[in-house]
Amino acid sequence: MLTGEMFVGAARVRGSGKEVRSRDPRTGVELAPGYRYGGAAEVARAAALAEEAFDVYRATDSATRAAFLERIADEISALAGPIVERAVLETGLPEARLTGEASRTTGQLRLFAATLREGSWHGARIDPAQPDRTPLPRADIRQRRVPLGPVAVFGASNFPLAFSVAGGDTASALAAGCPVVVKAHDAHLGTSELVASAVRAAVVACGLPEGVFTQLVGDGPELGTQLVTDPRIQAVGFTGSRRAGLALVAAAASRPQPIPVYAEMSSVNPVVLLPGALAARGAELGTAFVGSLTLGAGQFCTNPGLVLAVEGPGLDEFVSAAAEAVRGDAGGTMLTLGIAGAYASGRDRLAGRPGVTELARGEAGSSVACGGAALLSVDGSRFTADPELQEEVFGATSLVVRCADQAELLAVVRALEGQLTATVHADESDEPLAAALLPVLERKAGRILFNGWPTGVEVGHAMVHGGPFPATSDSRTTSVGSLAIERFLRPVAYQDVPAALLPPVLRDGNPEGVWRRIDGELSRD
Amino acid sequence: MLTGEMFVGAARVRGSGKEVRSRDPRTGVELAPGYRYGGAAEVARAAALAEEAFDVYRATDSATRAAFLERIADEISALAGPIVERAVLETGLPEARLTGEASRTTGQLRLFAATLREGSWHGARIDPAQPDRTPLPRADIRQRRVPLGPVAVFGASNFPLAFSVAGGDTASALAAGCPVVVKAHDAHLGTSELVASAVRAAVVACGLPEGVFTQLVGDGPELGTQLVTDPRIQAVGFTGSRRAGLALVAAAASRPQPIPVYAEMSSVNPVVLLPGALAARGAELGTAFVGSLTLGAGQFCTNPGLVLAVEGPGLDEFVSAAAEAVRGDAGGTMLTLGIAGAYASGRDRLAGRPGVTELARGEAGSSVACGGAALLSVDGSRFTADPELQEEVFGATSLVVRCADQAELLAVVRALEGQLTATVHADESDEPLAAALLPVLERKAGRILFNGWPTGVEVGHAMVHGGPFPATSDSRTTSVGSLAIERFLRPVAYQDVPAALLPPVLRDGNPEGVWRRIDGELSRD
């Protein structure tokens, strides 16, 4: 079923560069087929096809694009068995998790289909002419959003379906009317080929231009830079490491025409345990916390890598229960040997920082790419003095920061970098402190959650999966949820444009029946 | 009335650097008082005060901020006489223009006050909990937008009121809940001091923290870089030259934590004359065009510096009438001697490019900072071959590009850089060509207008004053109109946050009565 080829528009192409194979991270065994890297030629061809497709694709109406997204979802569902089977081999993630992720992926596509049909994404605004206004008449001015152009999407390793070939970035860019050029992640090349074939089938079934979707295989830094600096690419979606994300940001900024980069990069997702909650259920929180920490071998962007608490009743119970749970963890398979190696050295680096104590370490597990959990501890004063303690260790390691008092806790929170999430465990008695904390957390995180755990990102209209730098390169948006479509749009105003030439969504009588802002007031008339 | 001081929060401060004075560009006479440049100390103090004010200011409700903006408008209106009088001296712009600009400035402030009261700016979204969902219950997730933090605003020379101290960037940032640190433009320091005193009076009258507004005087590149790289500054608004704008973009990108820069920089605002319109009223269009070209001595960001037409009936009449109008133009006073010098050399550079013919030149005028209009012409094939012909000459010079046929016209349009505006003159007979042109223009410009002139930017809800690079550094937004508030906001999600801790706009029962998206559906219930 797998060919080892990439998809450059409608063409299946075998690269001419280095041959790479995904590996089963449980055994280290290389998986067939081999894929050869593409390079400048494939990037140029993909970008040319995407550019050629752009005007046709963006002129399609919301219903057409919604049907296309739904067709992609249907094609993925039809292929879900082989996709999940291959993804298990390539990622070591459990079948149940990947089955759930496949549903999430099709759910995302359907969410954007619904968002398109609802129509507010157009951002339609009409300020009608005022021919009798003095001293000067007012022109008729109408506004809508248009897509930016072809978008480069980089598949992430840790969600081989939901943040990869047909993941959130691809779904939102396609919804916005932007052709997509995906760079497949080396860690799951077969999964990527299967998903790409599903997308291609949908392109054909919907009669769309071939350049709407391309999937390339290539060297991350080299092909990534070629793609981001191609003049036809107009925006970038990325989820991955801080180093790789910042390299793409720099490449995009170095272009004669700079373009936006939406890079989701790095977050330690602080969990703040307030005194009342801790006193009431310290041990219970400790056990539940490790459940979140070790989920998926700690390979979630929202993995809780930092716990903040004030010395007092319940903290020792939390730490004991968490340490016990970590020691009892059987160890997970990490996504790749490289990730497992980076995890081990990151964990050991963090454990070796001055003032850091290792409280517990879990079983390494039997995989080749194993990653044993670890629980570390440090004092609040030491934490604020050592910025390296804030660096993300991708995997199931977390650092408990013990603060002397509430003032130190607030100082620690203020010293944090930007985060995807911030979690608070609080009882009613904690509300005054929680109220003081909330404005500080609002400046640090894209999502604030109470009495839960940050792993598990709901896909809906209100979700924000984003946050201040370095959590992302652009805090003004989200990469999960329907708001993500706005990343790939820009507003255009039409002044006194003849009725026959106006886009339908801006015509008198509201033929599309969408919400529009008339002289500032929302209306569907 | 003028003291020569800057405003660092509530304190009037005299700088300790170089002394500068504005000049009357009509006579070259230096104007009292002298202002001394501030530097790192004033930037640090301003940023510290802004940071200190931020949490208090952003916690104010929409009504409080709306009243503040209206109070600023009232204070400016009360001081309009002296402000306009001083601005005439400092800019050489006519009194009637500046009186109109004062109204526009207060109108902008009131527009943002209305936008705040309407409440959609919150971007409120609620996805209610689904405790019974299977396989997993859904948490309660709510979203609103929060302000980014202190904003640096750079006053522009060409709109000493509407794009300066209390102009659109300041109004939209204050509306969003961001304290503002303005760098006053050297060309109108007295006007800036007067307007800043009006803003300060409003800060005091509304009982807001002093750090909400600061106005600094200083060296553009030096103080500008200090300001943009201060870690407390979180966004930048700028209108000015491409060189200066790109320097700020680079400074912002070089920070440990990069920040957004909204720089409105460079646009030649193409005017496309279609055959039907040209044949019907070539001469009339030529005369009207020069009216737009020479308005305010050509010192509008939307000044029409480029005319595109296909050879055919009416084009010679257009050119003759335009040339005659240019020759008859008495010449205007430019804003500064430096701008007049740059204009003259830019005009002469453009006129001297291979293939360019000078059709007409206007009177230079009697001012010291004079800038005579010029009309140049070139062939379409030459234009696409020479990128320098696209460079903005800030002032009343325009280049007529004569295209051999419609295909060449479309090729010329496709070769254009990003623009603030694109204008089309078309009759009904031109609609097929206009329809072919429109999608191309949508990719080039932030505003497309028919049968009018680009100078004159309406301040409303549907306006876009922005556009693809290099018109701006960020095409996803506008610097004029109510949408501009979104530049200074980012979304935050609240998951299972206790009711008492939720921001009022997200509480059950919609206590603020604003539009919110409930499970994706807009509602005011």
How would you characterize the overall build of this protein?
Chains A, B: It comes from Amycolatopsis thermalba. Chains A, B: Residues 16-460 form the Aldehyde dehydrogenase domain. Chains A, B: This is Aldehyde dehydrogenase (NADP(+)). The first copy, chain A, has 525 residues and is α/β, with parallel strands linked by helices. The first copy, chain A, has 2 domains: 6-22 and 39-129 and 139-265 and 476-487, Aldehyde Dehydrogenase, Chain A, domain 1, CATH 3.40.605.10; 270-450, Aldehyde Dehydrogenase, Chain A, domain 2. Helices cover 38% and strands 19% of the residues of chain A. A 7-stranded mixed sheet of chain A has the order 15-17-18-13-12-19-20, with helices on both faces. In chain A, strands 21-6-5-22-23 form a 5-stranded mixed sheet, with no helix packed on it. In chain A, strand 8 (180-183), helix 6 and strand 9 form a beta-alpha-beta unit. In chain A, helix 3 crosses helix 4. Chain A starts with 5 loop residues before the first strand and ends with a strand.
CATH topological fold name of the largest domain in chain A: Aldehyde Dehydrogenase, Chain A, domain 1
The number of helical elements of chain A comes to 14
As for the number of domains of chain A, it is: 2
Strand arrangement across the biggest beta sheet of chain A: 15-17-18-13-12-19-20
Q: What's the architecture of the largest domain in chain A, going by CATH?
A: 3-Layer(aba) Sandwich
Main beta sheet of chain A: strand number and arrangement? Answer: 7 strands, mixed
